[in-house]
From TrEMBL:
<feature type="compositionally biased region" description="Low complexity">
    <location>
        <begin position="29"/>
        <end position="44"/>
    </location>
</feature>
<dbReference type="InterPro" id="IPR042230">
    <property type="entry name" value="CusF_sf"/>
</dbReference>
<dbReference type="Pfam" id="PF11604">
    <property type="entry name" value="CusF_Ec"/>
</dbReference>
<feature type="region of interest" description="Disordered">
    <location>
        <begin position="29"/>
        <end position="49"/>
    </location>
</feature>
<keyword id="KW-0732">Signal</keyword>
<feature type="signal peptide">
    <location>
        <begin position="1"/>
        <end position="23"/>
    </location>
</feature>
<dbReference type="InterPro" id="IPR021647">
    <property type="entry name" value="CusF_Ec"/>
</dbReference>
<protein>
    <submittedName>
        <fullName>Copper-binding protein</fullName>
    </submittedName>
</protein>
């Protein structure tokens, strides 16, 4: 019985090997500069500033779907990567932004006020 279990494990590992190689080569390709910039463009979301809290270095945004985080539209509080971002926005501004999970916290890493 032990030989059958070992054989099953070895077979599973060998059959998965081609997929592991493919995944590794695919991730290497996505690390190229052009792939990174398109990934950032894909991560851009639309929203409206509801509150700016400079003391806490947080921003509340009513946003559409955050595809890169697999999150539906809602209003939520985000940390900001750079507190200087908070000087560029005010309540009511329509924005395009990128949110990422950084250190377990949802964080705005880029933000632009829409004209």
């Amino acid at each position: 019985m032990k030989k059958i279990v070992n054989l099953a494990i070895i077979t599973a590992l060998l059959s998965a090997a081609p997929f592991g190689v493919y995944a590794a080569s695919d991730s290497a390709a996505s690390a190229s500069p052009s792939a990174t910039s398109s990934a950032s463009a894909d991560a851009m979301s639309e929203g409206e500033i509801r509150k700016v809290d400079k003391d806490a270095k947080k921003i509340t945004i009513k946003h559409g779907e955050l595809k890169n985080l697999d999150m539906p539209a809602m209003t939520m509080v985000f940390q900001v990567k750079d507190p200087a971002m908070l000087d560029k926005v005010k309540q009511g501004d329509k924005v395009s932004f990128v949110a990422e999970k950084v250190g377990g916290q949802f964080t705005v890493t880029q933000i632009e006020v829409k004209q």
